[in-house]
Amino acid sequence: LQREMVVAFMEEKMPYSPHGISAAVDALKLQLHMMNAPERHLIGFRNGVFDLKIGRFRPHHKHDWLLLANDVEFNSPVSGETLQSRAPQFWHWLNRATAHCENKAERVLAALFMVLANRYDWQLFLEVTGAGGSGKSIF
Question: Where is the Bacteriophage/plasmid primase P4 C-terminal domain (predicted)?
Fold first, then answer.
């Protein structure tokens, strides 16, 4: 913002100083609305927001105050769709990382849900151990 302020001063051929630029930027910041804390039950996507409280996808609203969003398009599930058919590379990694153990795979999926859905209230931490090259870093 300070660089843009310098450009504005230069375009108007007005003298400026580093202190003057900082003061002008600080004055502009005072005009901005205070940002609220983002709601933890919202997951941002490129094309909208998924609201975990109501289980629905909707358009973005500026009052959501999201600081970031996944650079992924949200698509509603199709009847009969499975993770295996929709995300075969992920499914392959999941099976390889869990040695084709369904119980382990369910735990990994639960951990991913915990992270994606901001379930900090579960008061859990994840410890991922295993042999080198087993997919821990990818996870």
Answer: 16-97
